[in-house]
Structure formats: structure tokens, C-alpha cells
Specification:
186 residues; mainly alpha; 7 helices; globular
Length: 186
């Protein structure tokens, strides 16, 4: 019975995160197992990104070690990006308007904002990969704006600025990692 309730709750979490439900983001840190689910979503996003990058790396005919290394590095870049993005948002807000909630509380809504990235494996579809990548990035940014707005209890403009600065840093970092891995394998 507990597992069925857990699966139903997970479906509801995914639906609320994907539809950018502001009420969900506002209260997400209060839900039982929210930390575990948020980290799980980031982990799935990392796995999806890593596998998608691995499929692209196959075009270069890498050795098994290069392929596994590329998948790991690309997947870990998503996880590192999550923690760095959240930290950048939190740190910028501490300079702008202290006091702020603890960093750990902000990890939960930002983790849920990564829900669209679970679909990152779709970016390997020929001719549609780049548009899908951009759509998922935009969707994630919108989720992060909702998460930051709710998590820090701030206005839309300030949330957009905070999320946008961190988003830019993370996207550039992940892009550089992915390009570096492809250059290394090529």
C-alpha cells in the first residue's frame, strides 16, 4: 500500500513540477521525502544527459573507457551544475537581501525544476536535437524561476534575475564539458 501511495505521489510531483505549479514549489520543502525525490530527479536528469551524450559519442567510435568516461563526466556535470546553480542563486540573494532561507531548503525546489531535463535523452533525435535542447533548457529555467520565487519568497523580476545569472553560468559550464569530452574522444 505504501509503495502505491509513493508512486502516485511521485506522479503528482512530476506533474506539478512540469506544469510549474507555483503552489507546489512554494511548499515543496515541506513534503515527506521531498529531498530524496528532488535528488532523484536530478539524478535521472544526469543519467538522461549522460546517456544522450554517450549516444552522440558513439559517432566518434570511442574506446569503451572513453565512452564510459564521457557518460560519467557528462552526467556528473549535470549534478555539479545543480549544486553550483543553487549555490549561485543562494549566494547572490544573501548579498542582495539577507536573511535568506538555508541553502538546503533551496536545493529542493531547484531540484524539482530539473524535471524537464529527465527528457534530455530525446536530444539525440536527428534534426530535432538542438530545438529539444533549447526547449528543455527554457522549461528548466522557467521551473527554476518558479522555484526561486517560492523558495526565497521574492518577486518575479528578482527571481528571474537570480535564476538567469546562475542558469547562464551552468549552461556555459555544461556546454564546455560536453564539447571538451567530444574533442577528447575525437
Amino acid at each position: 500500500m505504501g509503495q502505491r501511495h509513493s508512486i502516485r505521489w511521485l506522479r503528482q510531483v512530476l506533474a506539478d513540477a512540469l506544469t510549474l505549479n507555483q503552489d507546489f514549489y512554494e511548499h515543496s520543502h515541506r513534503y515527506p521525502a521531498a529531498t530524496r525525490y528532488a535528488r532523484g530527479i536530478v539524478g535521472l536528469a544526469a543519467l538522461s544527459h549522460g546517456l544522450g551524450s554517450g549516444l552522440i559519442l558513439l559517432l566518434y567510435q570511442p574506446s569503451l573507457l572513453q565512452l564510459v568516461g564521457g557518460i560519467l563526466v557528462n552526467g556528473l556535470s549535470v549534478v555539479a551544475g545543480y549544486y553550483l546553480w543553487t549555490y549561485a542563486i543562494w549566494k547572490l540573494d544573501t548579498y542582495i537581501a539577507p536573511p535568506v532561507p538555508p541553502y538546503r531548503e533551496l536545493l529542493i525546489p531547484v531540484g524539482f525544476a530539473y524535471t524537464p531535463q529527465v527528457l534530455n535523452l530525446l536530444t539525440v533525435i536527428p534534426l530535432l536535437g538542438r530545438p529539444i535542447t533549447l526547449a528543455l533548457a527554457g522549461w528548466t529555467l522557467l521551473g527554476a524561476i518558479a522555484a526561486v520565487r517560492a523558495g526565497l519568497n521574492i518577486g518575479l523580476v528578482k527571481a528571474t534575475l537570480l535564476a538567469g545569472v546562475g542558469f547562464t553560468l551552468v549552461q556555459v559550464g555544461i556546454g564546455l564539458v560536453q564539447a571538451g569530452v567530444q574533442n577528447l574522444v575525437a
